[in-house]
Amino acid sequence: MNNEIFFPENEFIISKTDAKGKITYCNELFINVSGYDTKELIEKPHSILRHQDMPKVIFKKLWDDLQKGHEVFAYVKNKTKHGDYYWVLAFVTPSHGANKQFAEYFSVRRAPNKDTVRNFIEPLYRDLLQQERTGGISASARYLEDLLKQKGLTYEQFIFSF
Ligand SMILES: Cc1cc2nc3c(=O)[nH]c(=O)nc-3n(C[C@H](O)[C@H](O)[C@H](O)COP(=O)(O)O)c2cc1C
């Protein structure tokens, strides 16, 4: 319970979802690291892995960007079936169906740099969560926007500046 799980740096945790975020495919590493078996994952919402330390604003940005047709990078802390956790750097992409609706989403995740997570992402997410506790998602969104403005960086430039 509450132990950090690590996976090899040269391997990727992969999943696909339908337009609503329900899991339609996951690779073997996904299954091994998450602790769930395929039957428990397929057709389930991806939020099955949601960790309470994740700020809502990060997922809002993920979905807003995907629905605009953009690719997204995000650091995500996930919870395993057994209550442990693992950090990933996810690259998420939308793909169109024939009718131009977003038919599915694809996420490829690698092991993030541990120091980056400890020194920058954990403190950032703690601040965002704190904002959400007091002022909701509008407060954390404003906090993130102000931080980016102050630094003169886009969100992607910011998360790759650490
Ligand atoms: C392709 C794809 C992969 C996702 N992977 C994760 C993930 O690994 N962990 C997670 O908590 N949410 C993931 N999400 C986001 C979830 O759909 C959801 O927005 C998030 O867990 C927050 O859940 P909530 O909105 O019910 O609070 C993913 C979404 C997509 C489209």
Layout of secondary structure:
Blueprint: E1 13-18, E2 23-26, H1 28-34, H2 38-41, H3 56-67, E3 72-79, E4 85-96, E5 102-110, H4 114-151, H5 155-159
Antiparallel strand pairs: 1-2, 1-5, 3-4, 4-5
What is the correct CATH architecture? Answer: 2-Layer Sandwich
Order of helices and strands: EEHHHEEEHH
Mean of all residue-level pLDDT scores = 95
According to DSSP, the number of beta strands is 5
> Given the C-alpha coordinates, what overall shape results?
globular
Classify the oligomer.
single chain
CATH C-level name: Alpha Beta
Could you give me the name of the CATH homologous superfamily? PAS domain
Walk me through the structure:
The protein has 162 residues and is an alpha+beta fold. The protein has a single domain (13-159), classed as 2-Layer Sandwich (Beta-Lactamase), CATH 3.30.450.20. It has helices spanning 28-34, 38-41, 56-67, 114-151, 155-159; strands at 13-18, 23-26, 72-79, 85-96, 102-110. A 5-stranded antiparallel beta sheet has the order 2-1-5-4-3. A hairpin with a 5-residue loop joins β3 and β4 (85-96). The longest helix has 38 residues, at 114-151. The radius of gyration is 16 Å and the shape is globular. The mean pLDDT is 95. It binds flavin mononucleotide. Flavin mononucleotide binds next to β1, β3 and β5.
